[in-house]
């Protein structure tokens, strides 16, 4: 056992590392005049034990393939993480004093701008789901023997996302995953619910099937032994429930409720604090040893273009079906592609991929937060994860999507069953705010194919694009408009009806594109020519075509979307032409919808051909 | 014990009710040609036991004050719920055949358009948090002796929100809350993780401190006994873990994985199914008895105007602080107002209210989903709940906000710490998509006060408005612009700088309003007059003033916001003037931001006075 091997000298050396981490956390936050030193101090012994005794990693290359991974889920303890990497030698300790400045990537909470951060944290309860993706990748896909450590706060352990992760980690026997809860008893504004009820924590985690070890989080020898026990525990994940004290090491701060998120004032008080910590340094010349990762190589990922689209003009297929077909083809074409589902795979058609590539498919069950977090974990391992569920249910994971956007994670989200056109299931199942929430995030590509050919090609484009992509897919079958040779660059659009005499341009996508085509026919029969644009790329948007079309059609645009009125396709169009003085009219769903038949609802909620024809007549009057 | 009292005749009568509920669920979904009969059949005995033996309620008045409440968290079993109320006599059984049509409010999933539904369900894992609000209201505020029953699915029990709720319900000893899990073993696309591992369920719920009873969910006598045991269990909530079979009662459907969300085909097959069920009807003339609720009255809620704002022009106060002051005053003025926090009350300043009105304040700890769900529960009891957290963390609860919007719930959300102007904490703590996500939901009022006076009055307006309201509040202190006599109607705006020669109108709110005022001064010094609008109401928006101002300033608008570019204040303005041919330029945060000093970040990310001046010069060139 590692603990037996820990000499007094080694123990002292580790304790000194912990003290050093405390000193640096206090000093950096003091210099920044903001931050969370007390939350660093409670976890300093845990982090010192991990970084300087337990973990195998390359301190000069945090992304080394087989390195153990460390995720600081309690992201507000960032100074502790930064101090650990500085102590490990990745960068000069003097950089720590740039904490929280615009000039440094040592931000208030960790982001992957730093090479040793896999995913941004700071919104609590996100580290464990990310750890699942990383651990599952190691266990089931890349067959690497590294371990994944996730350090959580006790306050954050109430976040439901952790319990989604707990269930999924148990289900997949992730014995290469080790969570540590820094049970320091104090939240931001109150003691935590369970305070130091360590048996209460044990009952919860054991109840969820984890191996749970209660340990004194300030006893480094005990921590070493506990991590060793964790590594020897097979078939299930382990959690260390570490009893600690917030602000440990500083007499004025320890276990005090008044020190959350407060730096020690700069000057005399900081010096006093550092003096108190310095006195705790143990004698002796013991040094720590960082265990190197085992050598590992991976076969190169294979990647080829998708075969031609199997769809012919005039076929009938739902875009969600075409996604499923394309995704299965993508599985063969690109060995890095991974799929994630939350028990709707027979509705989103990811079941096709899942059956063919079971070891690259995570059935995550009904836990959307964990699903998106795990996807970000896979992405941090170089995978290209596709996450598919009903568009409405991505609202459940919006905070995870937000943090993935902050992390500029390479995840792909596919939201099916959008809009009132799903019909009978009613408003709870209708994705009507998905464009708003996805397009709000900088850098997220938002795609909205109308037919199967376009869907097929956009799935390929999404996989090839480095960064987050959202694809919006519908439930009902629609007619295939494009032949297999058609191309759909991200940021493009298709002008599918036009003449020299167009009175107005209709911009649509998805079911409303077909309504626009119906309206086109009806208007044509009445002698009114209109232009129709298939806006398959919402972000980025084809500004040039929109402006040119508006200019060619008397400066009039009519947008139609199966989405709520704010933040949707219409607003994206408005924004693109806003400096042109163009008149834009939006048709969108403006009230809470209702169950009913798809066609009936499209008409009833004002986004059908009838409404388009009426609006057109009104506008051109 | 109730079970002892259950005669054979009564048992038969209850069993017949269950069979009847199955018949009606099959018939209605068959008629609708969509829906989830198998998920109704597994829970039919549970629902029959509750509605016709256990619950005390008025079948003609579902909103009777002291009625036991029933929440169908597994909303896809809606036909079962509808059948129970029809059997209870609330409406004719013939209405059940209008299921899922536009003409009926018996939608695919329940919504509060129906008088017996407190909150829309159908997005899984939301019933229990809502139940917490209702149970806590009964226990701590209104002191009613009704009980709250929440029927959940086994698949949905993985949703983390349930475990947030489990922890909070235990913390507050909600022994008037009873959850039932219909453990029917089968999800939509796969068996559930735990299948029929009933002891696994027990370990989880017991581990979370609940009284857990494993029961045969098709044994009505056992169910009656279990509900009785639940009612007698004091000091903690109870969960019934009911082992059931999906499709129970129909030989071709029972325990089959191929019957999720599938109606029995209309015609012969439906008739066969109904015949099979009809044969299960027991002999005898036993009847069921619905227990009436105990009488109860509540003192009328007080509702008065707030005292004058304590702020004077020129004072310095953050809008989050002013919210805290107003909210405390509101607590005195209106006894229906309730507060909810997720361990940031000393940052959002709801601690003032919490200290003064502890019995109307739920410290929910770090569990934002449960917090919003519980707020909707309070609202369903006639309370006016204010939920405050960092705006960024409302993304965690977006699905709950979405479902509250579908429910047209009377909850008020206050998001503090918006935008890059929070500074050093970095992007994870910056609310930059909150306007997009809130304004996308139809009917949600979105308010964005810039100073303390406006904040104070808008908190009052939010309380007086019937429906969902979101108030966006900032972290840094700002100068008070308005005197206590100023009024701020919802949907209004303030033109705070104007002249006859304005070259352009700047529209802003929050920190950017002050940047606009700085830019105004700088431009004025350079001989350029601009108009400045304080757009404190984003939805609804003051379209008339925006259009009039645009017309008066050469058709030029410049919007500036501490929010991402898509779906924010700028897009709301664009949408309001879109039919006018006005030119609108948007300044907003267009990339993932970074830690730094607030002023520095406002400037760096292009929303400060410097950018406003530059943009103005560019536009008017």
Q: What's the quaternary structure here?
A: homodimer
Indicate the proportion of strand residues of chain A. Answer: 5-15%
Number of helices of chain A: 21
Estimate the global geometry of chain A from the Cα principal axes. Answer: elongated
**What characterizes the major β-sheet of chain A?**
7 strands, mixed
Highest-level CATH class of the largest domain in chain A: Alpha Beta
Mean pLDDT of chain A, to the nearest integer, reads 97
> Quick one: CATH superfamily of the largest domain in chain A?
Thiamin diphosphate (ThDP)-binding fold, Pyr/PP domains
Computed over alpha carbons, the radius of gyration of chain A is 28 Å
Helix and strand content put the structural class of chain A at: alpha/beta
SSE layout:
Two copies of one chain form a homodimer.
Chain A: H1 2-5, H2 8-32, H3 37-54, E1 69-72, H4 78-88, H5 127-141, E2 148-153, H6 160-171, E3 177-183, H7 198-207, E4 211-216, H8 220-232, E5 238-243, H9 268-278, E6 316-318, H10 319-333, E7 337-341, H11 345-348, H12 351-356, E8 361-363, H13 368-380, E9 384-390, H14 398-406, E10 412-416, H15 434-440, E11 445-447, H16 452-464, E12 469-472, E13 477-479, E14 494-497, E15 505-508, H17 511-525, E16 531-534, E17 537-539, H18 543-552, E18 556-564, H19 569-577, E19 583-589, H20 598-604, H21 609-620
Parallel strand pairs in A: 1-2, 2-3, 3-5, 4-5, 7-8, 7-9, 9-10, 10-12, 11-12, 15-16, 15-18, 18-19
Antiparallel strand pairs in A: 6-13, 11-17, 14-16
Helix pairs in contact in A: 2-3, 2-4, 2-9, 3-4, 3-8, 5-6, 5-13, 10-16, 13-14, 17-21
């Amino acid at each position: 056992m590692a603990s037996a091997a820990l000499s007094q000298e080694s123990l002292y050396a580790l304790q000194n590392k912990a003290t050093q981490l405390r000193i640096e956390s206090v000093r950096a936050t003091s210099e920044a005049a903001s931050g969370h030193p007390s939350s660093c101090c409670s976890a300093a012994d845990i982090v010192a034990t991990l970084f300087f005794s337990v973990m195998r990693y390359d301190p000069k290359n945090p992304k080394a393939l087989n390195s153990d991974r460390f995720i600081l889920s309690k992201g507000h303890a960032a100074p502790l993480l930064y101090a650990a990497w500085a102590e490990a030698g990745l960068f000069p300790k003097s950089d720590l004093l740039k904490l929280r400045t615009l000039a440094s990537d040592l931000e208030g909470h960790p982001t992957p701008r730093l090479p040793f951060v896999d995913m941004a944290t700071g919104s609590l309860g996100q580290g464990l789901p990310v750890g699942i993706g990383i651990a599952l990748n190691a266990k089931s896909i890349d067959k690497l023997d590294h371990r994944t450590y996730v350090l959580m706060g006790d306050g954050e352990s109430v976040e439901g996302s952790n319990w989604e992760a707990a269930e999924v980690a148990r289900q997949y026997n992730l014995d290469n995953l080790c969570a540590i809860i820094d049970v320091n008893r104090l939240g931001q504004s109150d003691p935590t619910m369970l305070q130091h009820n360590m048996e209460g924590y044990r009952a919860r985690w054991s109840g969820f099937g984890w191996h749970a070890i209660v340990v004194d989080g300030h006893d480094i020898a005990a921590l070493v032994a506990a991590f060793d026990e964790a590594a020897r525990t097979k078939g299930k994940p382990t959690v260390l429930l570490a009893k600690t004290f917030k602000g440990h090491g500083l007499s004025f701060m320890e276990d005090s409720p008044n020190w959350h998120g407060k730096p020690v004032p700069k000057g005399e008080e900081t010096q006093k604090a550092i003096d108190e910590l310095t006195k705790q340094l143990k004698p002796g010349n013991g040094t720590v040893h960082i265990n190197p990762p085992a050598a590992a190589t991976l076969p190169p990922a294979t990647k080829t273009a998708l075969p031609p689209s199997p769809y012919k003009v005039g076929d009938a297929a739902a875009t969600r079906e075409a996604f499923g077909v394309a995704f299965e083809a993508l599985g063969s074409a690109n060995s890095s592609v991974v799929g994630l589902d939350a028990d709707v795979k027979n509705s989103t058609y990811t079941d096709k991929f899942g059956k063919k590539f079971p070891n690259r498919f995570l059935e995550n069950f009904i836990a959307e937060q964990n699903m998106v977090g795990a996807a970000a974990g896979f992405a941090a391992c170089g995978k290209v994860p596709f996450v598919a569920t009903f568009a409405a249910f991505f609202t459940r994971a919006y905070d995870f999507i937000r943090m993935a956007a902050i992390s500029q994670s390479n995840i792909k989200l596919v939201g099916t069953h959008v809009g009132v056109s799903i019909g009978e299931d009613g408003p709870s199942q209708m994705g009507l705010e998905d464009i708003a929430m996805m397009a709000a995030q900088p850098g997220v590509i938002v795609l909205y194919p109308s037919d199967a050919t376009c869907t097929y090609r956009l799935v390929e484009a999404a996989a090839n694009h480095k960064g987050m992509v959202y694809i919006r897919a519908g439930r009902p079958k629609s007619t295939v408009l494009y032949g297999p040779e058609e191309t759909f660059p991200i940021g493009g659009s298709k002008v599918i009806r036009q003449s020299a005499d167009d009175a107005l341009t209709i911009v649509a996508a998805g079911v409303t594109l077909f309504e626009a085509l119906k309206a086109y026919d009806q208007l044509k029969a009445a002698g009114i020519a209109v232009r129709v644009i298939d806006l398959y790329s919402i972000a980025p948007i084809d500004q040039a075509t929109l402006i040119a079309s508006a200019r060619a059609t008397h400066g009039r645009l009519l947008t139609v979307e199966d989405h709520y009125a704010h933040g949707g396709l219409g607003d994206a169009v408005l924004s693109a032409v806003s400096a042109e003085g163009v008149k834009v009219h939006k048709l969108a769903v403006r009230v809470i919808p209702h169950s009913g038949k798809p066609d009936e609802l499209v008409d009833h909620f004002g986004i059908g051909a009838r409404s388009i024809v009426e609006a057109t007549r009104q506008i051109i009057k």
